[in-house]
Write a sequence for this structure.
């Protein structure tokens, strides 16, 4: 059975634009997924990247165009300049980690609800009530927002270290159990083809 380690950031617009396509691909191939939220700004610092707001204007302009195009391709509602970005993405990441440990809901739906809160719903994922709403929407106990904070913090930090050691440098980033790496939601078709044995 194939396995995918999914490194992502709760504040990443590209994680949002991935929607739940990873989960659909995994289901198609009988693959399992481990969700590994991390601090994307820290990952950039460790792997030679630059935070979006510190990039050259030409790079920022291109990013804006590309996000608009990618959103149009997915059909997902998208706000290029959301009210609550940047914000503290750690509380939502901790809740995702707690939900994965607890089980009982849909993790793909949870990740999408969190990222949609930023990029289409104009909600602040640093607020506990917003995180609880996302947990409930995905079939998890909303109280998980207040549980496992130590585990969440430790795992969040460990995910960053693992990402760096395994060659991830952006989000979303998908690594198979055969160490095949795919960066970006626009590489999900390639992941699908790889798991099909055609790439």
């Amino acid at each position: 059975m194939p396995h995918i380690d999914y490194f992502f950031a709760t504040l990443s617009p590209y994680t949002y634009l991935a929607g739940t396509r990873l989960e659909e691909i995994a289901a198609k191939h009988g693959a399992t997924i481990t969700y590994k939220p991390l601090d994307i700004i820290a990952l950039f610092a460790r792997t030679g990247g630059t935070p979006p707001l510190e990039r050259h204007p030409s790079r920022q302009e291109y990013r804006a165009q590309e996000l608009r195009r990618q959103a149009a391709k997915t059909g997902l509602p998208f706000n290029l300049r959301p009210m609550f970005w940047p914000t503290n993405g750690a509380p939502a990441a901790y809740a995702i980690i707690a939900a994965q440990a607890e089980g009982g809901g849909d993790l793909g739906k949870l990740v999408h609800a969190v990222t949609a809160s930023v990029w289409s719903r104009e909600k602040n994922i640093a607020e506990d009530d917003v995180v609880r709403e996302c947990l409930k929407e995905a079939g998890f106990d909303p109280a998980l927002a207040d549980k496992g904070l130590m585990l969440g913090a430790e795992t969040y930090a460990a995910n960053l270290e693992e990402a760096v050691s395994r060659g991830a440098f952006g989000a979303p980033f998908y690594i198979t159990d055969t160490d095949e790496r795919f960066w970006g939601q626009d590489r999900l078709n390639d992941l699908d083809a790889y798991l099909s044995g055609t790439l």
Summary: The chain has one domain: 3-196. The chain has a mean pLDDT of 97.
